[in-house]
């Protein structure tokens, strides 16, 4: 029987293991921590009974992932819950951009920009199930739906700032800019519109749900599915040297490019080793988890109904903030994301104590404390927030790396979205999962299609491995 060892039990490592196990491969997953999950783990922090997502929180591409749907994670206990409103982006003058799952409802709330919003995203939403497979795989491939891809391409190549200026109102511009800012990159450079368009369209298609009980429920379900197929999972196994990896026909690396290089660099062809060595990180976050009594006292009541709130001011401010962050400067009011998962999933709360998930975009490797900046940004749009805080847990960039070594210098999305690296990660290749070492494949979010709890990096890497042994 063909054997495989998966190094890393995050969503992509588990997805790779599942794909291989379903093809009859004997799979063993080795996870360094005491539980699987990687970026999808949840649990208590300072207050018993209050459940926090330790990293990833909201999952439009989780519920919409064709791979998780194929596995049927609901059969292993996974349940999704949707907030009343997906996302808001409040402005200082009281105006607000409101993103609903329904594109019609979103457009209705954007006034004169409603028609433009539907023109910008409507065709992509309608064709999302056909377009997504072409976008959520290596870019160097023959498209299955070339006409849909051709219609998407011109918009995707734009700078996000130019895409935002297609709208006339500050609220619509800010709403799109906040979504585009999920890319952790300057918004005034080419191709930065793509991620904002993709997230917006996927949200209109699937909504922005959370996993009931916390994001860890996703990976617990995936782990149970793998065990059901006869796979083995070993936790508390730290691999720091290639000699520690058990003999196997296939080795799948749910690791960063730099970790893969440290394990196999001496066996990689020089061109591949150099490409891994050039791979850039830099999408750093500073995470702050709060326990509050009651709800955040948002000035605009729409935000009190939203699962996610983007805090960054208008388009000009968001663009400036991200440009400064990319240049290594933490501005006074950084871009902040706030998650109110308990609105959709009350099981995370304890009585009137509720978890608030937040993080600020900070310069790569930022080694300071951004807690006060996060609180100040929330207070800006929710005066009195500080008075609701019962407990605070701050996780800086290096603490994020300690939590998950894949998050080098706090880079939670597996590599900087700059230049061609945005679409060619970790290198330009027909098969970017192959490391150049026989039987060894990169299956992490540093490979296509990148960050997200969708499992598709692992699925595609496993398909590459299966092709190499003639099993696909």
UniProtKB/TrEMBL annotation:
SUPFAM superfamilies reported in the protein's UniProt record: FAD/NAD(P)-binding domain
A Pfam family annotated for this UniProt entry: NAD_binding_8
Highest taxon of the lineage: Bacteria
InterPro entries given in the database record: FAD/NAD-bd_sf
Protein name stated in the entry: NAD(P)/FAD-dependent oxidoreductase
Organism: Gordonia alkaliphila
């Amino acid at each position: 029987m063909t054997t495989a060892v998966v190094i890393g039990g995050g969503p992509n490592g588990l997805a790779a293991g599942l794909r291989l196990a379903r093809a009859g491969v004997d799979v063993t997953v080795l996870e360094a921590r005491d539980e699987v999950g990687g970026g999808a783990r949840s649990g208590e922090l300072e207050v018993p009974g209050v459940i926090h997502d330790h990293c990833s929180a909201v999952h439009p591409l989780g519920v919409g992932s064709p791979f998780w749907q194929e596995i049927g994670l609901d059969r292993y206990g996974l349940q999704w819950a949707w907030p009343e409103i997906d996302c808001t982006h409040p402005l200082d003058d009281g105006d607000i951009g409101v993103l609903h799952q329904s594109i019609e409802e979103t457009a209705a709330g954007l006034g004169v920009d409603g028609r433009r919003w539907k023109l910008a995203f409507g065709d992509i939403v309608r064709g999302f199930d056909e377009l997504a497979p072409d976008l959520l795989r290596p870019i160097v491939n023959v498209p299955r739906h070339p006409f849909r891809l051709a219609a998407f391409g011109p918009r995707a190549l734009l700078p996000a700032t130019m895409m935002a200026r297609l709208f006339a109102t500050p609220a619509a511009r800010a709403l799109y800019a906040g979504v585009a800012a999920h890319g952790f990159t300057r918004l005034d450079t080419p191709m930065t519109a793509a991620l904002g368009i993709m997230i917006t369209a996927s949200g209109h298609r699937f909504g922005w749900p959370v996993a009931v009980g916390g994001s860890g429920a996703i990976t617990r379900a995936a782990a149970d599915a793998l065990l059901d197929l006869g796979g083995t999972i070993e936790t508390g196994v730290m691999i720091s040297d290639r000699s520690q990896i058990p003999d196997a026909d296939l080795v799948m690396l749910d690791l960063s490019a730099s970790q893969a290089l440290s394990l196999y660099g001496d066996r990689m062809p020089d061109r591949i080793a150099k490409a891994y060595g050039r791979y850039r990180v830099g999408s750093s976050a500073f995470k702050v988890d709060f326990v509050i009594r009651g709800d955040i006292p948002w000035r605009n009541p729409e935000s009190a109904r939203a699962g996610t709130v983007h805090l960054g001011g208008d388009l000009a401010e968001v663009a400036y903030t991200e440009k400064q962050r990319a240049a290594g400067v933490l501005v006074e009011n950084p871009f902040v994301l706030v998650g109110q998962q308990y609105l959709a999933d009350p099981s995370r709360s304890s009585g009137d104590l509720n978890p608030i998930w937040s993080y600020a975009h900070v310069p790569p490797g930022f080694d300071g404390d951004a807690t006060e900046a996060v609180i100040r940004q929330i207070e800006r749009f929710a005066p009195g927030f500080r008075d609701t805080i019962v407990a605070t847990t701050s996780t800086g960039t290096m603490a994020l790396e300690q939590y998950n070594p894949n998050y080098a210098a706090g880079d939670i999305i597996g590599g900087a979205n700059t230049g061609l690296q945005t679409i060619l990660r970790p290198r330009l290749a027909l098969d970017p999962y192959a490391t150049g070492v026989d039987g060894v494949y990169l299956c992490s979010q540093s490979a296509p299609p990148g960050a997200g709890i969708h499992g598709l990096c692992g699925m595609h890497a496993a398909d590459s491995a299966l092709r190499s042994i003639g099993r696909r």
